[in-house]
Amino acid sequence: MKNFYRVISRTNAGEIKLGAEKCHDAKSAAGRLFQSPTVKSVVVADIDGNVYLYLVKGHEEKTENVKSTEAAYG
Is residue 64 part of a domain? Predict the structure, then answer.
C-alpha cells in the first residue's frame, strides 16, 4: 500500500499525522478527526503538496474542499 495522501491534524497537544492510499479515505479520516473538541485544524494533501481539504475551527472562510474525483492519485 502506498500512502499518496497525508492527513495532518493540529491539536491542543501537538499534531496527528496519518497516511492513506486514496483521497476519499484521507478526507473521511480528516473529517472524523475534525469532530474532536481538541482538534484545531486538519489538512489533506497529496505527496506533491496539492491540498484537497483544509478546515480550521472557527474560521469557515478558510475552508478548502476539492472533490476527491479530481485527486491525482485516486
Answer: yes
